[in-house]
From TrEMBL:
Zn(2+) binds at C72, C75, C89, C92. NCBIfam families: hypA. The keyword Metal-binding applies. The gene is hypA. The keyword Zinc applies. It comes from Aminobacter aganoensis. Ni(2+) binds at H2. Residues 103-128 are annotated as: Disordered. This is Hydrogenase maturation factor HypA. One of its GO terms (molecular function) is zinc ion binding. GO terms for biological process: protein maturation.
């Protein structure tokens, strides 16, 4: 499953970032996904199970879907085609070879817990 690999990579990136910054947990991740990726629903589905046992367990996944935009050379304008499978200018009907947006896959923001977790021994001493 391709989406599980992507979820695992996101989790690894966010966990490494939390570790480098001395934070305990990742509470959220913001991702920009182009509509042509076609994985938003599947990524949501596998994200929760993939976070189990990691610094990201319980983190919220926020996905911003980026619409498809092409550049029409004939009109010399950016346009939004009528469908993902037909990369033609909606105004003049000519095909476009240049996709401006809609293929993105980018981790844009990581939300971290304010305080790092206490080691188990230190937490027991605090409670006593």
């Amino acid at each position: 499953m391709h989406e599980l690999t992507i979820a695992s990579s996101l989790i690894e990136l966010a966990s490494d970032h939390a570790s480098r910054n001395g934070r305990g947990r990742v509470t959220g991740m913001h991702v920009r996904l182009g509509v042509m990726c076609g994985i938003a629903r599947s990524l949501y589905f596998c994200f929760g199970p993939a976070t189990r046992g990691t610094r990201c367990e319980g983190a919220k996944l926020h996905i911003e879907e980026v619409p498809l935009t092409i550049f029409c050379e004939h009109c010399a304008e950016a346009r939004s085609p009528l469908s993902l499978s037909n990369l033609r200018c909606p105004d003049c009907g000519r095909p476009s070879r240049k996709v401006l947006s809609g293929r993105e896959m980018e981790l844009t923001h990581i939300e971290l817990e304010d305080e790092p977790p206490q080691p188990a021994a230190q937490a027991r001493q605090t409670l006593q």
